[in-house]
Structures are given as C-alpha cells and as structure tokens.
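ugh ok so i messed up the first submission bc i forgot one of the chains. this is the corrected input, ALL of the components this time, i swear. 644 residues overall. if the numbers dont match what u have on ur side tell me asap before i send this to the collaborators (the ones from the other lab, u know who)
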Amino acid sequence: MQNNHHSGHPNSTAMNMREKEKYIENFNFPFCEEASKYQKVAKIGQGTFGEVFKARDINNPKKYVAMKKVLMDNEKEGFPITALREIRILQLLKHDNVVNLIEICRTKASAANRYRSTFYLVFDFCEHDLAGLLSNVNVKFSLGEIKKVLQQLLNGLFYIHYNKILHRDMKAANVLITKLGVLKLADFGLARAFSTNKNGMPNRFTNRVVTLWYRPPELLLGERNYGPPVDLWGAGCIMAEMWTRSPIMQGNSEQQQLTLISQLCGSINPQSWPGVEHLELYKKMELPQEQKRKVKERLKPYMKDPYAIDLLDKLLVLDPSKRADADTALNHDFFWTDPMPCELGKMLANHSQSMFEFLAPARRATQINRHHAIPRPTTSAVQDSGYQDRVF
Amino acid sequence: MKEVIDVMELQREKARRAAIIDYRKMDFMGGFSPALFVFECGKKLNGQPLTLATAAVILHRFFKEMDHSNYDPYLIASSALYLAGKVKDDPLKIRDIINVAHNTLHRGSTPLEIGEEYWNMRDGIVQAELLIMRALKFEVGTIHPHKYMLHYFKSMEGWLGKDVWDNIPIAKLATCFLQDLHLDPAVLDYSPQHIAVASISLALQCYGVQLPLMEDLDDEAWYSVFVKDLQKDKHWEIMEKIMEVFSKETGH
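and heres the new structure output, hopefully the right one now
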C-alpha cells in the first residue's frame, strides 16, 4: 500500500507469480485448520444460509460434525457481516442447549478456487432435528418426553436471552436433538445482540426476520423495537406442534398469517393489545375483528394435558409485553407435575436413522389434520456410524 | 457526571492538534506503531471510538502472531478498520477507507481513480481481512476497558462530589489516556479493568486530586473498591506505559 503494492506476502516484488501462488497455497494458519481434516458424508441441509454437510473427523473416525459453508456471494465486500455476527454469537454462547461451534475451517487456496479459500463453521453433529422427528409417525413422544423437549428448548432460550441475544428464527427445523436426547438450538444466522433501549431511544431492528409460520404478530405489524418475546412466540408454535405434528399456522403471505393468528388468538385491537394502534402496519393490514380467542378449544383435541394447554395459552399471547418469558414458562406447573420430564435417549434409541427436515420435504405439504404422512422411501448412504442418512 | 463525555469531540480536538506525520517515512521495525494510522484514518472516517479501539486491538494482535516484516502495516491497519466496523456494527465503507487511507499516506494527492490501483487496493484489504481472521482464530471481538471505566466514573462522581467532578475534567483526561494506550501493543498485556483503573489514576495524579477518606490508608489503594487483584507495581507499570506512549506520540 505504502509503495503501491499491496500483497500480503514477503518480498512480493522479488517473487514471481508461480512462487506467489505456491506461497499462498502452502501458507500455514495455526488457528484455522484445513477443511480436509473432515470428510464429507452427506448433505443434510440447504437454505438461504447455504449448505450444511455431515462429515467425519479423519483423525477421529468416531467423531461426526456438521459443516456449514459460509456463503461469500459478494467477495468485493469481504467476509459477510452476517456470518461474522453468527460466529461472534456462537463464540459467546456455550450451553448444553445451544449448538456447539467447534472451530472454523478453510479450504486450501489453489488455482482451482482462484486462490480464495472457502470457510466452514464446524459444529458438533446432532442426529435429528425436531421437524424431521415430528414428520415421522413412527416417532412417538410420551407426555414426559414432550416436557423434556420443551424444557430444554426454554432453557436454551433463557440462556441466550440472558446473554442478550435474540435468535430470530425459531422453528422446528432449527431445533436439533442428539441421539442421546439433548436438545440444541441451532442456526444463529439471523440472530443478533439486543439491548433494552439505549438512552431511551427505541431500537430500529429489521422486522424481516423469522420464518413466516413462526413469526409473531408484532413483527407482522412492522414493530422494530422488539425483544425476546419474538422467540417465545416461536416456542409456543413449536410447543403446539409437538402434538399436532405439523406447523399450526401455515400462512402463505403476511396478511394471511395475521388472519390465521387472529382466528386462533382472537382479534388484534387496542383492547386485546394496548398500543398496537401505533405499529406501522396496524392501519395497512386487514385485521379480522369479532374473533374470539380459541387457543384452548382449538388445541384441546390434540393436547389432553390441562397444564400443557395453559402454558401454550400463555405463550401464544398477542401482546408481546404480556407473553410469558422463558423463566416464567420454565416455572409453569406443566414442568412440575406428573408425569415429570423424562429423558429421550431411550425412545430415540429405537430410531437408528437420522431425521432431518431437509431429508423429509413431504412434511411441508401436510395439513394439520392429515398428519399420517408416510415417510419417504429412503436409501442409506452410510452404515458404519450406526446412523443411516436418508438421501434422495 | 457532567452529562456524557463527548469522546467524538475529544477525537476531533486531538486530530486538530496532532502533528502531520509522513507515514511512509516511519519505521515500524524501529518501534513506530501503525495504530496511530488506524486512529488518524478512523477519526476521518467518523468511526465510533469503540470501533477504533477494536481496530487497534486487532492490529496489535495480528502483529503479535505474524512476522512484522512480511506485511505492509498500513494495509493491515486499513483492513483492521474495515473488519472492526463489521464487528462493532458500525460499518465503514470500503471505498471511504481506501480514499482516506490513500490520502493519509499520500497527503494532498487526489482521490484514486477507479482503475487498477484502486481495485488492487480493494482486493488487498478484502484479502487481508480474511488473513487477519484466520490468524486470529476468528476471535475478533474484544472486551473493552471503556465499559469498566464508565462504571468507575459513575461511582467516583458520588465519591468526589459533584463540585469536584464537574470542575476538574478527570473523566475526559482518563479517556484520553485510555485511547493513548491503544497506540501501544501493551494494551494487550493487561486486563481491561486494570487498564481502566490505571488511566483514571494517572488523570487523578495529573490534577492532584485526592479521593476523600483515603488519606490515612497508605497501604490500601483507592481503587481497591473496584478491583481486588491489581498489585501496586503493576498499576505503576501500566501508568508508565501510558506516559511512554504519550511521549512517543508527541515526539519528546
């Protein structure tokens, strides 16, 4: 830069092109190992965030990991700020119910990739995701097991909120479960840090977050000064899904989602939700009036346990300031009455096949009443792990 | 506390006073710190103080890991600023960084045309960013002494009384000292709490301010209410580091 040459390697004037290439290829990063230390086994996810692979640690063949590729679509802007945010959040969060980031790996720079490395976030591998488990009718949860799932989910949320992080993409597919039954919140690609209003100034976060079916009413109405309650709405949706086995409100537009919410939770208006009239889209969206709240009566056919229904009723609350927080939810009698939460490991041991939503796309079309979908025919990719990966 | 300390204004004031440096003539190996370049460019870019502090820490950490002679310090400094903007959610535009860095190195020159040199510089900054992250294990966040200092200020305001606090700019001077220390790699060697305390101590001494009720307690330092694990000699050592930076910077 100083002398109008900018290469980050020694004596660049003295090196010819070939030497430079070799230098880059062989450059050693003591804290960032090569991705080739893992061997890809199967692709287990795909989305706006990029691709996720299951891989085996070559030096420790019993150890499996998930590798999430960092999308570098705009290389002129350098490392994506969103990926950097995700990494920083994952480095901060260390909890049994949050997915564990092991390290970040790189591919070797070579002529094949124009001397630009690809980066992977490497996580401990989890055998299942909740959406995949729920879409498989052979997987049956007892009430105690459902309690264990939800208790871990809320524990994870309590921890991240306590650390001032919002997840902002709660959904069954982002809830991972290991074969031993330990639940892990995953995909912090949309997560961000929050603080309760700095110097009285309201936050101006984007409201274009959370998958539509799990998006809370305040976001649908344009709120930008939101907080942890957005994740608890998602937790409520997931809770109901533990019994209904498919997402309870499957809107195909923001407008329709609001209509579905109103039909389930009652009309949105300043009586049910003081202050809602100040939200940006309150006047712009059609909000069905005269709707009665039917959370309890609509879900009773699925959820026999009165404590379960009561907790759900406290999570699916329109007004975010009255929605239960993670701590309140964890103290609910649901978790402290018989049957008590019980380990999932035994039940999961009956299923030797990994279940991921990605591998079971049929689920998305299922309706709330037709939850006896037949799992897709599968082929197995690997046998030796004891877990077969369904690939199609 | 007198409302808030306008650190941005402090930055601007300092920029006006600072001597004009020809960075191309500075000898990094001879002990000159390219962090000065980070702060000069960062101020021109209107970066937040914590963004500049982050950039300086990234720079020092990078050169702690890597061999100095292999890298252009001003490329790494520019890239550290770019990365720090992302880390602190205070994004600095790469185009602005290029223009500011170029003009700071080549004073009085016109902005770079969009051409080979511009694209090389841009590519260099982007590539160096990836290099830095790999070298630092992608751990590019820092725990700043600033937040501890702010807490200490809050307590001291009541302790000293509003009169003293409002009339003697202890907080302002301590903040300057803290920034000065970021010019030196020594900023990596001490805990954020200790750095905050030492910056305040130095400011108290400069103004000859004694904390009430502390006179008779010779063997107990005033800061023991804030930190328990700061030894006296270490406390001195940090203050000395700050003074060294100060004399290096002003050329005395």
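quick check: Chain A touches chain B through 27 residues (CB under 8 Å). that seems consistent at least. The radius of gyration of chain A is 23 Å.
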